[in-house]
Design a protein that fits this description.
The complex is a heterodimer.
Chain A (H helix, E strand, L loop, with lengths): L2 H13 L3 E3 L6 H11 L5 E4 H7 L3 H4 L6 E3 L1 H6 L2 H8 L4 E5 L2 E3 L4 E5 L14 E7 L3 E2 L2 H9 L9 E4 L4 E2 L7 E2 L6 E7 L7
Parallel strand pairs in A: 1-12, 2-3, 2-4, 4-7, 5-8, 7-12
Antiparallel strand pairs in A: 5-6, 6-9, 10-11
Chain B lengths: L8 H21 L4 H17 L1 H14 L3 E5 L2 H14 L4 E4 L3 H6 L1 H7 L3 E4 L2 H9 L15 H12 L7 H18 L2 E4 L3 E3 L5 E5 L3 H7 L3 E7 L3 E2 L5 H12 L7 E5 L13 E7 L3 H6 L14 H5 L1 H6 L10 H12 L1 H4 L11 H5 L6 H15 L4 H14 L2 H17 L23 H8 L5
Helix pairs in contact in B: 15-18
Classes of the chains: A alpha/beta, B alpha/beta.
């Protein structure tokens, strides 16, 4: 683990208005529960990869809440109308990401690796989960790495840096214009994964 | 003139540009080799513009292999008619749009509205100016001339909501109103900050997430871009994102940077089923043919030259009369619109050179302003009166004793007859200046031996 890189990322990510947690692998469910309570979120969507990677037990993590598990299969079955109707009621979503950039405090999201994109754009609160090994130093390193996997990028990709914002009224910064008002990141050291 | 008479217009412009300059200064100070990056950016854009047909062909070919339909529009009308045709072909009625200067340039909104299509601006600043029936005052902050009270009144009148002047509350109202528009939209229109030649993808840089909505929700996506917006490869993006974001908003990176290509796998409940690129010329070929003015095609639309220009800071964007304002607009607009409509613009400059100093891709703007002045003077027919006045001035300026005598006479005349000297046209918006009497030369002769 490169502490300098992590600390740099932490500083830049929080500078942009993001909220960072660094739980161990075992602490992930408790942290998710903590954020859900803090945001008073009632309608939750969880990307299937989060469920699988962290073996989330819904009954103990979100008792009585019935979150939507967002998988490729479910996503592909929805009509445009059903998709929009479902997403606009979601208050908080949990998603994995594909890389983190320390220089800018950004998160990379490669479209092919996820079941759609709207679930990290429409809800007011978005929680990303990432590992330390996904950190890269700067944009140069990121784009060098991406150049090596053109197939993965076919459907496109995007970088997210902090919550949605605007300063269009008298240059006063307002958080939460069209996208999420709150962006959380759980940065997890992989060496704490269960053996 | 009409805008300049509005209360607080100039104060709002000045405050906003000063704020933007401060933010930029802090962001640029973090980069040790900023000058090196500017030079690199200049060389890459030069390479692209010198070989634009090759890069353009590469971009279009790569885009087509991704299933994107590409149309090259020679002028504004061709571009507008093509977008209208796409809308008709796909049964589109509602369109959402993110901020794009080229769509302002071609007058897309007016064209589509005239044809009975609904098109809604979704960037907050653009939405405000659309509601007000105005045009953007600034490339990055379209509504920065408006105070929060004006925006509060506008929202109250146009959206029928209770008056508030609180920016967070106004933002929330706009968000709710526009969310409905996104969810109902059939087509999303965006611009492109960069087109990537070797992948055929486009890059859109924003903070609000509205462009991401335009790309994610509607079933049809249209990208409208100027033909010069190309960079060779995605490997060049770190450089250009650094130059653009830090110069434009003083951020290390804006909230969202989207690099997108063709339609996704079908069927899908989100993302476009069809993607179109409309690559617009609209006068850019004329710029390209001029060995000096083609450097304006390096521009990455950061508006840093607007913010630092003492003329822009004083008069704001509307006085330039068109989409591109500030020093870059003063150079480009006469060429894009032809001289008779915009021949005054290159003269609206102090030639201080601050624009050239701040430009992230090192466009020598002050030299181009001077060059445009020369061309305009050479190409414009001047009236006999003007020629006569210039000839008299030339004569006087070359004969100092004669100059002193005439100025002295004028000064005395002004003191004896305290009425304004009316010069038709010139004095319509200004008063004739008071001639200094005694002149400095006389004053100096008298005082030069005095000790302070």
């Amino acid at each position: 683990m490169n502490l300098t890189l992590t600390e740099r990322f932490r500083k830049r990510f929080t500078d942009t208005g993001g909220k960072l947690y660094t739980p161990s692998w075992q602490e992930v469910p408790v942290t998710l529960r903590h954020i859900q309570k803090r945001e008073r979120a009632t309608r939750i969507l969880i990307e299937n990869q989060v469920m699988q990677t962290f073996s989330i037990n819904l009954n103990t993590t979100f008792p009585g809440m019935y979150p939507i598990i967002w998988s490729r299969e479910k996503f592909a079955r929805l009509s445009r109308w059903e998709y929009r109707k479902q997403l606009q009621t979601i208050h908080m979503s949990f998603s994995t990401v594909d890389a983190l950039v320390a220089e800018t405090g950004s998160v990379l999201f490669i479209h092919r690796n996820h079941p759609g994109q709207g679930y990290i754009l429409l809800p007011p609160v978005v929680v990303f989960l990432a590992f330390h090994h996904q950190l890269v130093n700067n944009l140069d390193t990121l784009f060098e790495q991406l150049a090596g996997k053109p197939e993965a990028l076919t459907e496109g990709y995007h970088l997210i840096t902090g919550p949605s914002k605007t300063a269009d009224i008298e240059k006063q910064l307002v958080i939460g214009m069209h996208g999420p008002e709150s962006v959380y990141l759980l940065l997890i050291p992989e060496d704490t994964s269960p053996a | 003139m009409q805008y300049l008479q509005q209360p607080r217009y100039r104060e709002n412009i000045w405050r906003a540009t000063e704020h933007a300059l401060q933010q930029r200064h802090q962001a640029v100070a973090e980069i040790a080799d900023w000058e090196k990056l500017r030079l690199e950016g200049h060389h890459i854009k030069k390479q692209v513009i010198e070989h634009l047909p090759r890069y353009l062909n590469q971009f279009i070919e790569n885009a087509r292999t991704k299933g994107i339909i590409v149309y090259q529009a020679s002028d504004a009308l061709a571009a507008n008619q093509y977008v209208e045709q796409i809308a008709r072909q796909h049964g589109v009625r509602r369109i959402v749009k993110s901020k794009s200067m080229v769509t302002e340039e071609i007058g897309l909104n007016a064209h589509l509205q005239q044809k009975g299509l609904e098109i809604v601006e979704t960037d907050l600043g653009e939405y405000i100016v659309q509601l007000a029936g105005e045009t953007p005052v600034h490339l990055v902050g379209p509504a920065l001339h408006k105070s929060r009270q004006e925006i509060g009144r506008l929202f109250s009148e146009q959206l029928g909501i209770a008056y508030t002047a609180e920016p967070s509350e106004l933002t929330r109202m706009a968000r709710n109103f526009l969310r409905e528009k996104f969810l109902a939209a059939d087509m999303g229109v965006t611009g492109a900050n960069f087109g990537i030649a070797d992948s055929g993808r486009v890059v859109v840089v924003e903070n609000e997430g509205n462009a991401r909505m335009c790309m994610t929700l509607p079933r049809i996506r249209v990208v409208i871009m100027g033909m010069e917006r190309l960079i060779p490869s995605e490997r060049n993006l770190p450089l250009f994102l650094t130059l653009l974001c830090r110069s434009a908003t003083g951020q290390r990176l804006t909230g969202y940077v989207s690099i997108t290509g063709g339609p996704g796998p079908s069927p899908s409940p989100e993302g476009p089923e069809n993607v179109y690129y409309v690559v617009v010329d609209n006068g850019r070929s004329r710029l390209l043919r001029n060995s000096l003015l083609k450097e304006t095609l390096y521009c990455i639309r950061c508006a840093a030259c607007y913010n630092i220009c003492p003329v822009y800071q004083t008069i704001g964007g509307h006085a330039y009369g068109w989409v591109y304002q500030g020093p870059i607009g003063a150079v480009m607009t006469p060429e894009l619109l032809d001289y008779p409509n915009a021949g005054d613009l290159p003269f609206a400059s102090t030639l201080c050179g601050a624009c050239s100093e701040i430009c992230p891709v090192k466009i020598p703007l002050h030299r181009l302003l001077l060059y445009q002045r020369q061309r305009i003077v050479q190409h414009t027919k001047r009236s006999a009166t003007e020629k006569y006045i210039v000839a008299i001035f030339e004569k006087l300026a070359n004969h100092p004793p004669l100059w002193n005598r005439v100025i002295g006479l004028l000064g005395r005349l002004q003191r004896w007859l305290p009425v304004e000297i009316p010069i038709p046209g010139w004095c319509d918006s200004r008063t004739f200046p008071q001639v200094q009497w005694p002149p400095f030369s006389l004053w100096w002769k008298k005082h030069k031996n005095q000790k302070t």
